[in-house]
Structure formats: structure tokens, C-alpha cells
From TrEMBL:
Annotated ranges, domain GGDEF: 419-547
Gene3D superfamilies recorded: 3.30.70.270
An annotated Gene Ontology molecular function: diguanylate cyclase activity
Catalytic activity entry: 2 GTP = 3',3'-c-di-GMP + 2 diphosphate
EC number: 2.7.7.65
Origin superkingdom: Bacteria
Protein name: diguanylate cyclase
Length: 547
């Protein structure tokens, strides 16, 4: 018999037959939707049995999306349809999409960026097998159920608690596809982990996943990505996608930080004062906290009827829907015509004491601080060493090795994009006479003054270095031979008209050459050097060119 109500089910059944049997026992409800979870939440208790949350039927709309409908076009239609319901919240239940969910959510967010989404990825205590989402008439292993909660008399509050910190050293994802990483920092991903975490990580993949998830930025926020398996091709699969070229960090979990984040979520929910709370807590978070998961979960019972489940990933939308990991994600639902319950301050105080008193939390925080401080110092030292390796000691500009390295890069860029490239080689006319007459200290001072004049007049993309002795090289990206000669002439006049601290004129001779098809560093510089020789042979203080 119809009761005018619908239910959201967190099921501990892991086969279609068991789920269908569960649904048949709930046949008196007009609407049923749900997902499998490795464990469920009811009040302040974690259960290995199914739990349900009941809603007035008139406040619900739903859409079920099967895997073969996960195209961008279908995401557009789904977002448009859900938006038309004017929902106060969209509870999103996902099962086994192996990296496709993020692409779907990205397209969904383009159409409905403000979608009030909250939800999770179905789980199983035995791992990423036999997970399902379902409605009253359908049980599917790969797909999405969107449950729209609507109505003028309903208010909702959504947020999540994270609490993981990240080490400050970042690593570039150099080869990835969807949720698989093949290379980090141009190293095979397994070698990358072995380098930083040692050989034992292969035998302790679960511990690595819990304690050291990779963290990347999504919508300006750092989110965790836990490894779920190592594949036969030695790539590693994660609970969310990566993009080639983006940077990742090692995340580090500390109980104190995690539980304080949960306490803040609980306090925000308390201020909202909902009638019911639905929690989607990451299974990895539960495994990390162990028994202290109850400290995190139990305070919500003091606010309102609390149900939920432990999931493989959490879904949350504020600016755009994103996939999270290692969070406690919550939605509070309030019916305006119902009386509010009072707050349970005893629960709050007990919770506060438990999060602050454990010395292990302080130790972890100090270790994270220590690791970050050491990394900052090492990175600063490495920058200093690199600067010394790249810099000419006398003038402070690039040395010969570095300027030739930069020229190699610019030639490759020119070959790729077809833009012009010119170079200038110049040296100081009769510089040996300056050294012989005024001494090497004065000669060094003259070189430094010349370098400062050049530096003040080159463009931002131009590259300047000492080629050797009193010879210098300027690389002019996106500049043809005409522009190169014009710029060289400008520099020649600046030096000629400058007053140096000696009683004689200082001039320079300059050779200009433009890149032509097939040039290497050596052939391009050979032409510029020959042009310089022509300038010196024709009387010095001149600019000559070779195309």
C-alpha cells in the first residue's frame, strides 16, 4: 500500500539478487533509491546492515543514468533537466565508472555550475567489485542516480570536512590518462613512489593510500586522490582523474587536524539545525581513523536524524561539482514547518576534549612542519646552487653553458611554431688595451657597466649571456634580421654615447644573424660570429649582418 513517502537506502547487499530482495521488503514506499556501502551510519552507530532515510514523496524527483549514456551530450541534457526541478539539493549516487564520472561532472558543471550536489561513490568492503546503485525498478553496476530534493518548505545545508595537509614539494604529472598515472616527473610511477617512500610501499599499498594520498587542485581547492591498484602495465589507478602537466603533492593525515575539521563541520551543521543529516564518509578516512571514526560520526546524532554510508569517493558541488576523497561530506535537510530540537552541548564538549588531548596528533603536526621546513631549506639551497651554475660570476648574467642551453630551446620553439629568431654577438673593441692601460679591476668594472646598459634596454623575452671573455650573446625571439639589426644599432649608440670612468671612448662591434631552416646552435652562431668579424674588420664600432 502506498504511504506517500520515498526512501534513500545505504545497503550492505552486494549482489543484484540480494538488492532486489531488499527492495521487495520495502515495497510499501512509493519511491526507492540507494547505493551499496561498505558500512552504514545510523545515529551514532556504524552498522554492517542496510539503513534508510525517509522523505515526503512530493519533495523528490529522480533520474537514473546508465553507463552507455555518459556522453557530454547526455550530461548536458541531464543538467538541464535537473535544473528545471529547481532543487534545494541533488543527492548523487555513483557506481564504478572508472574515471568517467569526473568527465561527466565537468560537462554537467558547465551547464549547471551552481548545482547543489552532494553524494558518493558506491563501495564494497571487499574492494572495487560488486558495487551498485538502484531505484525501485532498476539495479545497475555502472551508472548514476540523481535524487533531487525540492520544495518551498525545504532548506538544505551542505559542506564537507577534510583535514589532510600536504607537503609543500610539488611533483609534475608527466604521463596520465583519466584515473591512471604512468609517469611522475618523467619517472615510471612505481619508481617515483619507491624513490620517496622506499621499497616497502609495494607491500603496504593500503597504508600508502591512507597516509600519503596524492593531492591536486580542483576548483582552487586541494583534493585527495588515493591509489586503488597497481595495473599490469605498472601504471597506478586512483579514485579520481589526473591531467598531464598538473602538479601533485603528497598528502599527510593527522588525526587531530582531521577531527578538528569534522568538529567544525558539526558546528556549522548545528547552527543550521536540520531535521535530518545524511553523511557520505570516505572509506579511506574510516580506515585511517579506526575506532576514532565514532568520535567523528556520533556528534551528528545530537542535531537530527542521522544516516549515511562509507563510500569510495564523495561528490560535492559549490561552484562546480567535483569528486573528493578522504572527506566527510554532509547534507542537512530542514522542513520549515517542523519544530527545531535543542543543541546537545554535552556532546560538543566531549568531542572537543577527545580531539585536543592526544599527544600523537601534536607529534604528527610537528613532523609535517619539520618535513616542510627541511624541504623549503633544500629547495632554497638548490635554487642558489642552480643560480651559481647558470650565472656568470663577474656580470651576474647567464654564463656560456646556460645561454647556449637557452638558444637550443629557442631554436626548437622556432622550428615548432615557425616564428623568426635572431641573435647578436658583440664584443668590446680593443678591450685588451683597456686592461693593459687601466688594469683588470677597471676592465671588470667596464664590463659590468656595459652589461647593465644592455639589461636595461632588452625586452622581457630577450635572453642575455656572456659568451666568453669580452664577448656577449643576445637571443631575440620572434625577431627577424631587420629587427635584430635595428636593435643592435640602438645598443651600439648607447655604448658609444655612455661616459665610462676612464678617459677614452668605449665602443662595441656587433654581428647579427637570423635563424634559417635547418640551422643548429653551431651554424647560427657561426654566421653571427662571422658578421661580428666583418664589423671589426671594417673599422669597429659597427653592426654587420648575415641572413
Amino acid at each position: 500500500m502506498s504511504n506517500g513517502k520515498g526512501i534513500l537506502v545505504f545497503a550492505n547487499k552486494y549482489s543484484k539478487e540480494e538488492i532486489k530482495n531488499l527492495i521487495s521488503k520495502l515495497d510499501n514506499y512509493d519511491f526507492i533509491c540507494g547505493m551499496t556501502t561498505a558500512a552504514s551510519i545510523e545515529g551514532s552507530t556504524i552498522l554492517n546492515e542496510s539503513v534508510k532515510s525517509v522523505f515526503p514523496l512530493k519533495s523528490l524527483e529522480y533520474l537514473l543514468i546508465e553507463e552507455n549514456n555518459l556522453s557530454k551530450e547526455h550530461a548536458t541534457k541531464t543538467a538541464t533537466k535537473l535544473k528545471s526541478f529547481k532543487p534545494k539539493a541533488i543527492i548523487t549516487l555513483v557506481s564504478d565508472l572508472d574515471g568517467n564520472i569526473e568527465e561527466y561532472l565537468n560537462q554537467f558543471g558547465r551547464i549547471y555550475p551552481e548545482a547543489p550536489m552532494v553524494g558518493g561513490v558506491a563501495s564494497n568492503p571487499k574492494g572495487f567489485v560488486n558495487t551498485f546503485v538502484f531505484t525501485k525498478n532498476r539495479v545497475i553496476s555502472e551508472g548514476i542516480v540523481f535524487l533531487a530534493i525540492k520544495g518551498e518548505s525545504i532548506e538544505t545545508f551542505r559542506d564537507y570536512a577534510f583535514g589532510w595537509k600536504h607537503l609543500e614539494k610539488k611533483f609534475k604529472i608527466t604521463k596520465a590518462f583519466k584515473n591512471r598515472i604512468y609517469e611522475i616527473e618523467d619517472k615510471p610511477v612505481i619508481e617515483f613512489y619507491r624513490h620517496y617512500l622506499g621499497d616497502m610501499f609495494l607491500k603496504n599499498l593500503e597504508a600508502v593510500t591512507l597516509c600519503f594520498p596524492l593531492m591536486v587542485r580542483r576548483m582552487g581547492t586541494l583534493v585527495a586522490r588515493a591509489c586503488i591498484r597497481i595495473n599490469e602495465d605498472e601504471s597506478m589507478s586512483y579514485t579520481g582523474n589526473f591531467r598531464e602537466g598538473e602538479y601533485a603533492y603528497f598528502g599527510v593525515g593527522g588525526e587531530r587536524k582531521i577531527l578538528l575539521a569534522s568538529r567544525n563541520l558539526w558546528w556549522q551543521m548545528t547552527k543550521f539545525s536540520p531535521d535530518k543529516v545524511i553523511l557520505f564518509s570516505c572509506l579511506g578516512r574510516k580506515s585511517f581513523l579506526g575506532r576514532k571514526t565514532l568520535i567523528e560520526i556520533s556528534p551528528f546524532e545530537s542535531i537530527g536524524e542521522t544516516t549515511g554510508g562509507f563510500v569510495f569517493g564523495e561528490i560535492f558541488g559549490r561552484k562546480k561539482p567535483i569528486l573528493l576523497n578522504h572527506t566527510l561530506t554532509a547534507i542537512g535537510i530542514k522542513y520549515k514547518d517542523e519544530k527545531r530540537k535543542g543543541r546537545n552541548f554535552k556532546k560538543f564538549c566531549l568531542y572537543h576534549q577527545k580531539t585536543e588531548s592526544d599527544i600523537q596528533h601534536v607529534i604528527i603536526e610537528m613532523l609535517i612542519h619539520l618535513a616542510n621546513t627541511v624541504m623549503k631549506e633544500l629547495e632554497k639551497k638548490n635554487r642558489e646552487i642552480k643560480k651559481l651554475a647558470d650565472t656568470d660570476g663577474l656580470t651576474g648574467i647567464y654564463n656560456r653553458r646556460k645561454i647556449l642551453e637557452e638558444l637550443e630551446k629557442e631554436i626548437i620553439r622556432t622550428q615548432r611554431y615557425g616564428n623568426p629568431l635572431s641573435v647578436i654577438i658583440f664584443d668590446v673593441d680593443l678591450f685588451k688595451e683597456v686592461n693593459d692601460t687601466y688594469g683588470h679591476l677597471m676592465g671588470d668594472k667596464i664590463l659590468r657597466e656595459i652589461v647593465q646598459i644592455i639589461k636595461k634596454n632588452i625586452r622581457r623575452p630577450d635572453i642575455f649571456g656572456r659568451y666568453g671573455g669580452e664577448e656577449f650573446l643576445i637571443i631575440l625571439p620572434e625577431t627577424d634580421i631587420t629587427g635584430g639589426v635595428k636593435f643592435a644599432e640602438k645598443l651600439r649608440k648607447l655604448i658609444e654615447n655612455h661616459t665610462f670612468p676612464i678617459d677614452r671612448k668605449i665602443t662595441i662591434s656587433l654581428g647579427v644573424a637570423e635563424y634559417k631552416y635547418g640551422d643548429t646552435v653551431d651554424t647560427l652562431l657561426a654566421r653571427a660570429d662571422k658578421a661580428l668579424y666583418m664589423a671589426k674588420e671594417s673599422g669597429r664600432n659597427k653592426v654587420c649582418k648575415l641572413s
